[in-house]
């Protein structure tokens, strides 16, 4: 007879084991599910002594936040106004930021501590922008303010996170040499406001620093700047002091970069746009014979090919309008070797050739000769030989392949090895191209009937795309009609430059010369082009905005 007691305990063990396995299954470790990413900067909980304290006599300021914080680039970002010989020491610990004052404070003076973008949370690095702390060692706190907007002089768009700062007139010599202690950053709409200012005459500046900047000191080479020419007297809350930032032209010519490339060519980058540039080999003079020089459209870069590379060193003279601007030397080793490959690019966009353009070939080396017999043109797989190969009369990097292109046909072109021969006997490898001709029905025309505000002035009317790139421009000084003919259907806009000096281009400003950029007006109306459509529209140019 079975032992019932033993069976009972066996059953109890089975039940206990089942419960244990069930518990372990429910309690197994799971990967935590992440919530939404924290995008909010820390918030100030308390300030000790309180912000805007009068009769301040503390040696330390303690700011508590609602989360752990850290410091970023505090030596660049933090400032105190008025300046102190021994700047405060900043320490971040958990939720606390301590500011230890090292120097003696002046009597009856308002101090502003500007933290810039130096304080952020530890986990996501969310930055507190324009954090400040103000106190006075006297019974009164300076309470004047200055506000306005900052925009880009060329695009008209509002500038986000531009630095706006003021300098007392007597300290304006510090501009471009030392960071101004009184500054703020514009918000996402380009607005700024400087608070707790003392009565006085100030110069006002805006600075849009380049990527990698952040020292809040104007660097002419890389930054954009805006300024109010005349000092502003701040004796009350002052509003609508608006600035436009612009890129200054370099006052003195300089070569930004020079390079002897591994294909034997020489590349130069200038800090100015030259008007009538020329490059001459001064030493050895024999190397100057047969050289090829290509300048960019803006005349701010150059590429030079020397056909004689037997030199140990070469001296080049960069000239503009007949004046030598700078000499530059290049050295090469006698055993230096160069790797060359002739490449071909064309003007096909998305597999289509613009019916109003020639089929254009662009090379990376000056081409000396072409062999049309090594070019195979297929029209819907049928070989065609009645094409013509034409070299550009000015640009030695361009050739044109002329043919009566037809709609609804597929074109395949094979450039066999050696179809083109460049300097140093460099030849192309086999290259294949394929495209169709875009139909003329895909293009439109806009006729603009223009009324100018003053026939004694000059205006540059530009047809621009959505990215504000110039498509075409006209110089006008009287009422009339201009045509933007045969452009792809799409959205376009009109930009007008008030060409004060009548030179046909937009001129930027100069702090040294006290000039502002030439004024620009954007027509608020979109000038769309519809496919296979001719549009007639009116454009009344308003008078230029006043200073």
From TrEMBL:
SUPFAM superfamilies: Starch-binding domain-like (SSF49452). Residues 38-137 form the SbsA Ig-like domain. GO terms for molecular function: carbohydrate binding. The keyword Chaperone does not apply. It comes from the Bacteria. The keyword Nucleotide-binding does not apply. Keywords: Signal. InterPro entries: Carb-bd-like_fold, SbsA_Ig. This is SbsA Ig-like domain-containing protein.
